[in-house]
């Protein structure tokens, strides 16, 4: 009997909006407040630098995915070029960092709902998880539809913000914090008000802001016509970075001085409050809420698919490879959602530190995953020139740019070591990789003994 497979039900509009949703999330709507406090107006340069690096990672991933029809995600690529141990470590690391990211978003959902209702943070967090789990268990098309509408809300909001900001800038509108003017970019301590150190320390949160951009690669196995849709989505990333990140932050910092923004709240909500439009601030809070729900939805999707792929390769329990009648890995979804729900507990135990800890761990793990993609691409170009010659979606400036981006990622990790807030998480995270490295040989031995026992029967 043929085993059920994942269905290719994600259309072009789903893939395009998944790509947008992956580049606009909680890191921008909430995390940018902390990053702005660290870097001041130079935060725009930080977003630009990391955004360009991520684009080259995505071009490398796109070329690799399309070089072989059997690839379903970058764990397949890691196994092909770096071996099964590397695939094991990368796959479980990707699962772990999306678990961390989804936990952060669950925490954020509880915080945002408190804008309207005085209820414990864990209540809306659990309700959100239950709703998303129910929808994701139906069909992958539901995930695509959810992300389509969630991303559309984000896009419309940022377009509205930029439009209103330009109008206020032309009018010279006055807020409680002063006039809306481009001079706000340099009149409050300069472009680098906290010096080069503040600029460098902002990189961690900006890296977290871009997590999820690689969802285009995770969804490849369920994407209709990947040869057309994946390149189209990846090639539009630079424009989205310039517009949705740099453009939105430019408008925010012109409307109000960076000194007026608090790291504990969304700068988008704060901006409309300063402008004196309370109802708009409430609307923006709703958008930020949907953004957190969207990121949590992405986390549930990606973690379940990673568990599914690991199980198919005998690197996780066989139960995770089972698909329900809708061709969705239901067991993987259940276990991932259960682990993500721990985020609700963290928000109660360490409410002030929880978000910072999980976002730092997530950023470190994503740097690993992105780095693996770049290393695999270097090896692909060196060892399989015949595939590279036939490629219709060649990554530009390789392999030189791969080494440049890897050096940037290494530099960001070094910066985290010197920052007091990120140092504990950076020192803890290697334990995860050591654990995976040690677990893999033990699992291999058990599998070998199992196969020997089977052959002797």
TrEMBL record:
Q: Does the keyword DNA-binding apply?
A: no
UniProt topology in membrane: Multi-pass membrane protein
- The record lists the membrane-crossing segments as 17-36, 42-61, 92-113, 119-138, 150-171, 191-216, 237-259, 271-296, 332-350, 356-380, 400-419, 425-442
- What's a GO biological-process term for it? transmembrane transport
Ranges of residues in domain Amino acid permease/ SLC12A: 14-440
Provide one Gene Ontology cellular component: plasma membrane
Which InterPro entries does the entry mention? AA-permease/SLC12A_dom, Amino_acid_permease_CS
Pfam families registered for this protein in UniProt:
AA_permease
Transmembrane: is it a keyword of this entry?
A: yes
Quote the subcellular location field of this record. Answer: Cell membrane
So which domain of life are we looking at?
Answer: Bacteria
Name of the protein in its database record? Amino acid permease
What is the phylogenetic placement of the source species in the record?
A: Bacteria, Bacillati, Bacillota, Bacilli, Bacillales
């Amino acid at each position: 009997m043929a085993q059920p497979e994942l269905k290719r039900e994600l259309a072009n509009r789903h893939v395009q909006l998944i790509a947008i949703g992956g580049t606009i999330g909680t890191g921008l709507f909430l995390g940018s407040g902390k990053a702005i406090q660290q870097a001041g107006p130079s935060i725009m340069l930080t977003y630009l630098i990391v955004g360009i690096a991520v684009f080259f990672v995505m071009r490398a991933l796109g070329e690799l995915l399309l070089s072989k029809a059997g690839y379903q995600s970058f764990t397949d690529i890691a196994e092909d070029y770096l071996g099964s141990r590397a695939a094991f470590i990368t796959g479980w690391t990707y699962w772990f960092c999306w678990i961390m990211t989804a936990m952060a978003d669950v925490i954020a959902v509880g915080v945002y709902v408190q804008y309207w209702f005085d209820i414990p943070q864990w209540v809306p967090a659990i309700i959100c998880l239950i709703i998303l789990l129910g929808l994701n268990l139906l069909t992958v098309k539901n995930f695509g539809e959810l992300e389509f509408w969630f991303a559309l809300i984000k896009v419309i909001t940022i377009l509205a913000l930029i439009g209103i900001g330009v109008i206020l800038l032309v009018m010279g509108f006055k807020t409680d914090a002063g006039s809306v003017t481009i001079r706000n970019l340099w009149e409050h301590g300069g472009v680098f008000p906290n010096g080069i150190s503040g600029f460098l320390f902002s990189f961690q949160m900006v890296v977290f802001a871009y997590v999820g951009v690689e969802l285009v690669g995770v969804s490849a196995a369920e994407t209709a016509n990947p040869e057309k849709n994946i390149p189209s989505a990846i090639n539009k990333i630079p424009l989205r970075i310039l517009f949705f990140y740099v453009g939105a932050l430019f408008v925010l910092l012109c409307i109000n001085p960076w000194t007026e923004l608090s790291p504990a709240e969304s700068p988008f909500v704060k901006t409309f409050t300063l402008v004196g439009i309370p109802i708009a601030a409430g609307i923006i809070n709703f958008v930020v809420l949907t953004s957190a729900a969207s990121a949590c939805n992405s986390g549930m999707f990606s973690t379940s698919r990673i568990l599914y792929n690991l199980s198919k390769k005998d690197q996780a329990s066989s139960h995770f490879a089972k698909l329900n009648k809708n061709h969705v890995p239901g067991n993987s979804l259940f276990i991932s959602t259960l682990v993500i729900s721990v985020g609700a507990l963290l928000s109660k135990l360490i409410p002030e530190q929880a978000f910072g800890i999980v976002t730092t761990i997530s950023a470190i793990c994503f740097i690993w995953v992105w780095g693996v993609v770049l290393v695999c691409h270097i090896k692909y170009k060196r060892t399989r020139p015949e595939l590279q010659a036939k490629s219709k979606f060649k990554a530009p400036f390789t392999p030189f740019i791969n080494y440049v981006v890897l050096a940037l990622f290494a530099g960001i990790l070094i910066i985290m070591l010197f920052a007091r807030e990120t140092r504990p998480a950076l020192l803890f995270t290697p334990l995860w990789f050591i654990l995976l490295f040690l677990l893999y040989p033990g699992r291999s031995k058990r599998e070998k003994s199992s196969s020997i026992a089977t052959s002797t029967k």
